[in-house]
């Protein structure tokens, strides 16, 4: 049904947001670490 399709799209978008946020925070902490080392 249309509703289940929208539900899947919502879940996929949520997962992508989470992955994007995780990748951003990981690169951010790595950036902070290199700044501390220098």
From TrEMBL:
It comes from the Eukaryota. This is Uncharacterized protein. The lineage of its organism: Eukaryota, Metazoa, Spiralia, Gnathifera, Rotifera.
């Amino acid at each position: 049904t249309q509703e289940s399709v929208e539900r899947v799209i919502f879940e996929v978008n949520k997962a992508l947001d989470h992955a994007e946020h995780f990748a951003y925070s990981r690169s951010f902490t790595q950036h902070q670490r290199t700044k501390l080392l220098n």
